[in-house]
Amino acid sequence: MTENIIVITGATSGIGRATAEQFASNGYTAVLNARTESDLKELRDDLPGETHRVVAGDIGDENTSKVIKTIVDDLGGVDILFNNAGYGEIQPVTEMSKDAFENQLNTNVTGVFLPTKHLLPVFREQDHGSIITTSSLAAKNSFANGSAYVASKKAVQGFMECVKQELRDTNVKCGTILPGSVDTAFFNDLPFGPTADRHLDAEDVAKTVWFVANQPASADLDEIVLRPAKRETKD
Ligand SMILES: NC(=O)c1ccc[n+]([C@@H]2O[C@H](COP(=O)([O-])OP(=O)(O)OC[C@H]3O[C@@H](n4cnc5c(N)ncnc54)[C@H](OP(=O)(O)O)[C@@H]3O)[C@@H](O)[C@H]2O)c1
Questions:
Q1: How far does residue 34's CA lie from ligand 1's centre (Å)?
Q2: pTM for this structure?
Q3: Class of domain 5-226
């Protein structure tokens, strides 16, 4: 079996990319997922280590998780599943199409359900490992025009709480991270973004994923709310 394996969805940018770098620099083999194959190959080649694998595909499409499972079987197991792929559909309810709403839930919620469903039998069989999911501070701080996004992030919290209950008879852990504003491409098409004096860097979240993955064997964190600290800004 390959030692120390992490599966990362939404791996090519922002939080996912920083997490891939954090774990690969510490000897992990990463199974990297996103939709854009060229970005995945570039990331794979940039990471330290020669054993990383890529799975190009929409995480809301069940076949993507089936391919991930095949690779995990080939590697001989998985230590961490980091459910991270997501985006923000920010629109007033009355202007949002049914497709836009459903697409948001498909990526942000079904895209957490599917890899979890397909890798759970492996985690159970090993009786070891962690499932870690990126929710958002938005799950606690609702805001106008955020209905689809906030609904998706509250949904994954509930999902993870239930998975944790399903795993109570095992040593498999489940944790959810709720970051505040992180300076990433997430905001590229949005009418607002992180402020200069208060935002997280993607590396802050990656280090938190590392912390959750390396918590004491006898501990099982439920959720971490990660708020940006005040930064000094130049006038
Ligand atoms: N940035 C923030 O302030 C913030 C705060 C709290 C929570 N979050 C959450 O953190 C997660 C990562 O966000 P980020 O800020 O790192 O955003 P980002 O820089 O835009 O990265 C998003 C990543 O997800 C991939 N992706 C998007 N849709 C996908 C899909 N359907 N299937 C597979 N991969 C997909 C993207 O690659 P492709 O486009 O090539 O697929 C990219 O690798 C998201 O779940 C987001 O909701 C972000």
A1: 9
A2: 0.98
A3: alpha beta
